[in-house]
Sequence to fold (140 residues):
Amino acid sequence: RREPQKRRTRSNREMPAEEDLLEAAQAEEDKIKCLANLPDMIFSEVEKVRDTFRSTNGLIVDPVKEELERAMVNTWSEEEKQTFIEKLVDFSLRPEREGVKKNFYAISRFIPNKTTRDCVRFYYLNKRTPFFKQMYKKFE
Fold:
């Protein structure tokens, strides 16, 4: 069985000794600060502008123009269109995929050089065209 610890109160004689130690530590710290050469932490406007990191990485100035150029470069061949519609039908008819009719990420993995973004764009731009409907019915 443990005995309860007794509370210890400091005597008046001990208090000044602790204060002396704190004052000595503060004096030592002040002495070290005086010896160190600390630069000014305030920058002029010229220094602020000069030392600011400006990244133009990924900057798109005209997004409409950029998207039109991208669409012209990344055209869909007949084979890619057929593969896309075939996989779209395949994924929408799978019983384990209940509730998920369009898995563009999985479809994009079957078409080289096409991203998920390309597949989504192709689907929503072409889903109402007669060609798309005809091909969809063919694979259904």
About this structure: The helical segments are 14-35, 45-50, 63-73, 78-93, 104-108, 116-126, 130-139. The mean pLDDT is 81.
